[in-house]
Amino acid sequence: MKVKVKGIPLPVSKPLFNTLRRSASALLLGAALTSAVGSAAAADKHCLTDCKPRIGIVSAFGAEADILLEQTQKKRDWKINGNRFTTGELRGNPVVIVLSGVSVVNATMVTQLMMDHFHVERLLMSGIAGGVNPGNHVGDVIVPESWAMPMEVYWNGDGSLPAPCGTAGDVGCLGVRLATENGKPRPDFKIDTPHGQVSSGLFMRENFVMNAGNAPQGEFRFEFQADAEMLALARTLKPALAKCGPKNPALCVSVQPELRVGGRGVSGTAFLANPGYRAYLYDNLQAQVVDMETAAFAQVAYANRVPFIAFRSLSDLAGGNDFKDVGAFFGSGLAETNEANVTLAFLEAWSRRSQR
To answer: Which pLDDT tens digit goes with each residue over 42-69?
Structure first.
């Protein structure tokens, strides 16, 4: 048997020919597998711009992120669709930091933009929020175990359970689903009037979300769970929290702020200044804190299957003039200072843990 090498026919025994053929096939298969694995790995990185594994940090507006950006080293700015993403190292961790702007829509868009352009292994929300639990105080930093969007609603004409699909509480034929507790729809919001409470007809809904793990049918969820590993580390922190903010040290809170891990956080499209609705959120959901971004951020994290955690420092009791320390936040910058201190303490602890 003869084979051609550079066009020259050479005699080769049949056993040797078979060995060469098998070796060539193995090399081709190995190259194909290497190429396929490499392509899959590149696709999993979600990095149109920068592929270094990082912790993604999102804040809603400037004051919340300024302290973090000031302490970030080896900074580099990236402009993506007008948004500034800053990469660098913060307390020993590779990070990418961005301001989302206020609102659930902005938080959703910018968080997904971060996921698409950077290799984000974990997500962290850092900012300020309004208090819901009257037992908490201005300057406290709250780290909820889960986040929900109760202002995603079915607005019925009255307080009776909606029944557009024939059965009370069934709205599935419309492509939506009411939020339930123990198998029953959660109660609608009641408005206080001089003549007693009046039903608003606003019933909480669950959110539809799809990702690679639940496709093609997707799923409905009322809330999104923060990462258990990150929560466990947060419970070990002993950060120094201030009573007086740096902008005006003469304005101080009367109660020493604390770090509180646990409970539920809620987000919505409304800037909440309604004590009645705040009480409804606390009575029915045991909500601790309310903002306009984190639950949307959490849904993006879930859709991308990326672990997340959120730190929110209380600026006031949402819609409550009875929160006597509210002036301390607006005058001194206390809330953003405390949330930044907790975020930095967490990142430092996370870096030590990762090194071990």
So the answer is: 345 568 889 999 999 999 877 778 889 9
Exposed (0-12), middle (13-18) or buried (19+): which is 328, by Cβ within 10 Å?
Answer: buried
Query: Which residue from 139, 345, 122 is spatially nearest to 237, judged by alpha carbons?
Result: 345
Contact by Cβ (8 Å): 150, 336: no
Buried b (16+ CB within 10 A) or exposed e, 143-154: bbbbbbbbbbbb
Task: Check if the beta carbon of residue 209 is closer than 8 Å to that of residue 221.
Answer: yes
Q: How far is residue 46's CA from residue 187's CA, in Å, rounded to a whole number?
A: 41
Residue 91 backbone zone (phi > 0: left; psi -120 to 50: alpha; other: beta): left
Give the alpha-carbon dihedral of 51, 57, 61, 66, to 10 degrees.
-100
CA–CA distance, 82 with 149 (Å, rounded to integer): 27
The answer to whether the pTM exceeds 0.85 is no
Contact 293, 102 (CB under 8 A): yes
Q: Is residue 293 within 8 Å of residue 100, measured between CB atoms?
A: yes
Task: Estimate to the nearest angstrom the gap between the alpha carbon of 55 and the chain centroid.
Answer: 12
List, for residues 188-226, the tens digit of each pLDDT value: 999 988 988 999 999 999 999 999 999 999 999 999 999
pLDDT reported for residue 27: 40
Q: Which two three-digit tokens encode residue 233?
A: 């580390």
